[in-house]
Amino acid sequence: MSLKFEDCLARLEQIVAALESGNLPLEESLKVFEEGVALARHCGRYLEDAERRIEILAKDESGSLTTRPFAGPADEAQ
Amino acid sequence: MTGSERPVLTVSALTERLKATVEERFPMVWVEGEISNFKIYASGHAYFTLKDAGAQLRAVLFRNRGRRIRFEPGDGLHVLAMGSVEVYPQRGEYQLVVELLEPRGLGALQLAFDQLKARLAAEGLFDEGRKRALPRFPKKIGIATSPSGAAIRDMLRVIARRFGELHIVLAPCRVQGDGAPEEIAQAIRDLNALGGVDVIIVGRGGGSLEDLWAFNEELVVRAIAGSKVPTISAVGHEVDVTIADFVADLRAPTPSAAAELVVREKQAVVESVADLSHRLRRAMGRRLEHERQRTTALATRRVLTDPSRPLRDLHRRVDDARGRLHRAMERLMRQSAHRVEMATAGLRSGSPRARLARDRHRHETLHARLEAHAARALETNRGRLGLVAGRLHSLSPLAVLSRGYSLTRTPDGAIVRRAVDVRAGEDVEVLLHEGRLDCRVIATREHDEPQV
Predict the structure, then answer these.
(1) Distance of CA B51 to the CA centre of its chain
(2) Strands B56-61 and B93-103
(3) Which ipTM score applies to this complex?
(4) Is the pLDDT of residue A75 over 60?
(5) B155/B144 Cα distance (integer angstroms)
(6) I need a surface site. Which of A2, B8, B33, B105 has the fewest CB within 10 A?
């Protein structure tokens, strides 16, 4: 699934609202339910996937941007 | 008196003396007045006039001095100017070469703040419509601040305390002093250029008005306005307001608050996904339960337990319809027949056939009367005939037979009166009083004497 997280979440909200309204035919309900389960799993994975990382931006000799780990304000104070 | 004895000065000499006197006398003065005819030339130098009710003074603000002035000088502004008076011999003019310009009344910084704010507001830079919503789940957060300042320390502490599985990219920049505005603006541009950054926090910790000034600089404000990534401003403390706050998509009162905001957003999203997942399953479960109940309810309905029922209903409906159809047809026929009758009757009363019928009826009546009459007459006559016949009978020769006489007839009915009327061998019949004898003649005798 290459959907953006925001789009996934929006679609999931839409599906839940539709299911809760109870207006969908049963077959359609089952179809969107499966889609919803997949979206919820995808969103959950995306959230868990985030790792804690703190970097500081720097420029190399050619002027292009690079990042390196940032240890903390104390280190930078020198 | 000759011209040579008079102390005559050339224009240049006089002007030189004036110049020396004036410039020596007024090397540095403070002058108060109102600016008019303010004009900046292409060279970057600004020329204007300082005036009050009684006099005017030409003044110049050279470019290199002008850069140090934070507010924008303009006509009508009441100022204190510090500078030296200089004479320009070529034009016979003197002017104040301004080193420092300060607004009278408001502080220079406040004025500068108000002016820039008004100008950018007029440009529409602070319009609510320009504000973008923060991403609900920012994964990669760019921070433009000093790597050694209080701001970054506070933000990292908040993020570490809450569950901060976030990717943070710090774009280091000085946040006060010379060059700070340029560095802040560049940091914002760098974070945009890096890519993948969901939200930018730009700010610094608390300080004096001068310390925070960089965030009131047009350069910084425009960099924020130009950022493609939604930006949160987080400058100083709650009470500190900078122009960066007006242009940012969101103003956080402090850097810590900005970090809280970002982390809370993430937490909210985690909870939201969990909630949605739960509601999804519950809604589906409820739906299935509902369908199950419906199915059960349907299965116990008469239609399914008594399958002939709908057929019976159908039959009854067909019968009903048929009955109604017939009744309607009959009614229609009756009405039609009645109308035909009416029409026929009308037709009949005037037709020759009607007269014929009447005549026939009369004829039949008469005929009947005639027949009755005839029958009666016949009956009467038949009675009379009976009487006559009775009397006739008493006179009949046949009546003699009862006294022992008989009558002989030939087969053809002729009375045999003489023997010669017959021959031997012929058949005769002899009528007695009662009955008849069929006889054959044996012999005939012409004369017969009685034997007795």
Answers:
(1) 70
(2) parallel
(3) 0.74
(4) no
(5) 12
(6) A2
Q: How many domains does chain A have?
A: 1
Taking the whole predicted model, whether its pTM rises above 0.95 is answered as: no
Residue B410 · residue B390 · CB < 8 Å: no
Q: What value does the mean pLDDT take over residues A59-76? A: 77
In the prediction, which pLDDT does B63 show?
87
Contact indicator for A5, A46 with CB cutoff of 8 Å? yes
Binning chain B into helix, strand and coil, the percentages to the nearest 5 are: 50, 20, 30
Domains of chain B listed by start with CATH number: 11-105 (2.40.50.140), 137-269 (3.40.50.2300), 394-452 (no CATH)
Comparison of pLDDT for B313 and A13, the residue scoring more: A13
Provide the pairing of β-strand B78-88 with B29-40: antiparallel
* CA–CA distance, B139 with B262 (Å, rounded to integer): 9
Tell me if B87 sits within 8 A of B22, measured CB to CB.
yes
**Average pLDDT in the A3-31 region?**
85
Say yes or no for a CB contact (<8 Å) between A70 and B190: no
Please list every residue in chain B whose beta carbon sits closer than 8 Å to the beta carbon of residue A26. 287, 291
Q: Is A8 part of the contact surface with chain B (CB cutoff 8 Å)?
A: no
